[in-house]
């Protein structure tokens, strides 16, 4: 019974984590629109790490513990996002001497849009499948 309660607790956190991730992405977007400093945007981008990595860890733990039939696909999707995220971050930091802020402007928009597109797809597909599976396994 204790394990089921632990898994149920994790399940309940996932939706709140999605909201936190979207909130940080929206703050990043606002910072870009308001042309805040590159350092501020970078700080926000890296703050996203905390939410995303905790969320991925929780989802993967839940999937593994309940023997979710798409666990490997879920992990692959998370790895794909991390790869894009870190690649975009490295591009964003590429040319700090760019006084025209060309990279800053272009990659800010691209970074935010890429994260939003991936997250939207991920939530509507694999996360939805996981949530339905968890509900059936935990009899929620």
Q: What is the 3D form? A: elongated
What Rg, in angstroms, do the CA atoms define?
17 Å
CATH A-level architecture: Up-down Bundle
Helix content: over 70%
**Strand-pairing-aware structural class:** mainly alpha
Tell me the total number of β-strands.
0
Number of helices: 4
Q: How would you spell out the order of helices and strands?
A: HHHH
User: Which consecutive residue ranges, at least 5 long each, have pLDDT under 50?
Assistant: none
Largest sheet properties: none
Could you report the average pLDDT, rounded to the nearest whole number?
Answer: 85
Distance between the termini: 14 Å
Quote the CATH topology: Four Helix Bundle (Hemerythrin (Met), subunit A)
Tally the structural domains: 1
Strand residue content: under 5%
Oligomer: single chain
| CATH top-level class | Mainly Alpha
CATH superfamily: Hemerythrin-like
Explain the overall architecture:
The chain has one domain: Up-down Bundle (Four Helix Bundle (Hemerythrin (Met), subunit A)). The protein is 85% helix and 0% strand. It is built from 4 helices and no strands. Helix 1 (2-33) packs antiparallel against helix 2 (38-65), helix 2 (38-65) packs antiparallel against helix 3 and helix 3 packs antiparallel against helix 4. The protein is elongated, with a radius of gyration of 17 Å.
């Amino acid at each position: 019974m204790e394990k089921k309660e632990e898994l149920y607790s994790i399940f309940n956190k996932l939706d709140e984590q999605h909201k936190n991730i979207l909130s940080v992405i929206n703050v990043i977007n606002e910072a870009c629109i308001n042309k805040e400093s590159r350092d501020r945007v970078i700080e926000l981008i890296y703050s996203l790490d905390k939410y995303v990595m905790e969320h991925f860890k929780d989802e993967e733990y839940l999937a593994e513990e309940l023997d979710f039939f798409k666990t490997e696909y879920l992990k692959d999707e998370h790895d794909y996002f991390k790869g894009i995220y870190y690649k975009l971050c490295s591009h964003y930091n590429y040319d700090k001497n760019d006084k025209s802020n060309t990279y800053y402007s272009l990659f800010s928009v691209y970074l935010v849009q890429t994260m939003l597109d991936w997250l939207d797809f991920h939530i509507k597909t694999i996360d939805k499948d996981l949530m339905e599976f968890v509900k059936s396994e935990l009899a929620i």
